[in-house]
Amino acid sequence: MERLQVYVDLVLKWQPAQNLISPSTIPDIWTRHVVDSLQTQWSYPEARVWVDVGSGAGFPGVVTAILLADDPEAHVHMIESNQRKAAFLRTALRETGSRGTVHPGRIESVAKDWSLGRVDAVSARALAALDPLFQLCEPFTRQGAKAVFHKGQDFKREVNEASARWDFDLVEKVSLVDPMSRMLLFSNISARPE
Fold it and tell me: Is the model's pLDDT at 126 over the cut of 90?
């Protein structure tokens, strides 16, 4: 809780200059962002090495790193192309004493040249539809990484569209924050032959 409080205070301190989260969500930051992000790591509690793509303000990447901060084998890689947000993420990891690395750059480039060993799980929140997400994360999922994506009430349409191009096993969990939203847990993701 202490580390999460440090992180929330940092988000609020940097918010005026960085616009890290939607201003309308500031009063509900704990529910809307923190609790929502806690569900990511809870989805795959056995995962030790995470890649969070399009990390933005660090929801869920920094929250995952905080939850795993006391595990010496855990590490969260965050990929963020916005340099100012990448600087914020580095500060958040340092100030909360959490293990992680910020990779400033485009997801496609960082993922394509990945040489940092195995990845257990990939996460993303409010980044893209499932089909392009699968494409961005393929360098990790092809090696066996699982994926967890937060999706809103339109999740069924996205799953149907993605299933035209991808094979996967899916577990749907109702979000603790919004009963219309889902945590979508994917494993065995592979592109269908063209």
Answer: no
